[in-house]
Specification:
Layout: E1 7-11, H1 12-17, H2 19-29, E2 32-37, E3 40-45, H3 48-71
Parallel strand pairs: 1-2
Antiparallel strand pairs: 2-3
Amino acid sequence: MKSEREVKFIISTEAQNHFGRLLDDVAANGTRYIVKRFGAPKAAIIPLEDLETLLAGESNGQTYLQVLQESRPTYTLGEPIKPRSTGRD
């Protein structure tokens, strides 16, 4: 996925009314669209290449998620949190 591609926001009725042009823009220019409904983002329309990249990484996603969860510190309610050392001690 190329991060320099443009991301545009579009309301759902506008996306519906101009869907053909939207698809042409996505396919030709790699533009990514965030579709809003009632002011809130609800879906994304992205190039097929981006979807393939996301799906290929999905199998690795569980591994990354597990590592993130394991690396997240756990706290007991009411237990004071010690500040991290800054190395200036």
